[in-house]
Amino acid sequence: MKNWFRRMQEGGYYLMKKREEQARLRQKLGLPTSFDPSRPSSSELAPTLIG
């Protein structure tokens, strides 16, 4: 059980780091840091950043 919990924590940490990395990348490209579907530019570029 303890192992599972640690794995969950590490997974969450990994996701957080990845999200942080994406936000930094978007800032560098001059995109909004939060995903905004109403803006066509962000929704067009989002798949390339996420994938």
Structural summary, described in words:
This protein is mostly helical. It has one domain (2-50). 75% of the residues lie in helices and 0% in strands. It is built from two helices and no strands. The chain has helices spanning 2-28, 40-50. The model has no long low-confidence stretch (mean pLDDT 71).
How are the elements arranged and paired?
Elements: H1 2-28, H2 40-50
- Show unreliable segments: none
SSE ordering: HH
**Distance, first to last CA:** 32 Å
Question: Could you tell me the strand content as a percent range?
Answer: under 5%
**What average pLDDT do the residues reach?**
71
- Taken from the alpha-carbon principal axes, the silhouette is rod-shaped
Query: Percent helix among the residues?
Result: over 70%
- The total number of structural domains is 1
Report the C-alpha radius of gyration, rounded: 14 Å
Strand runs, count: 0
Instruction: Look at the helices and sheets and give the structural class.
Output: mainly alpha
Alpha plus pi helix count: 2
* Largest sheet properties: none
Task: Give the key terms.
75% helix, 51 residues, 2 helices, mainly alpha, single chain, rod-shaped
Summarize, please.
The chain is mainly alpha-helical. The protein has one domain.
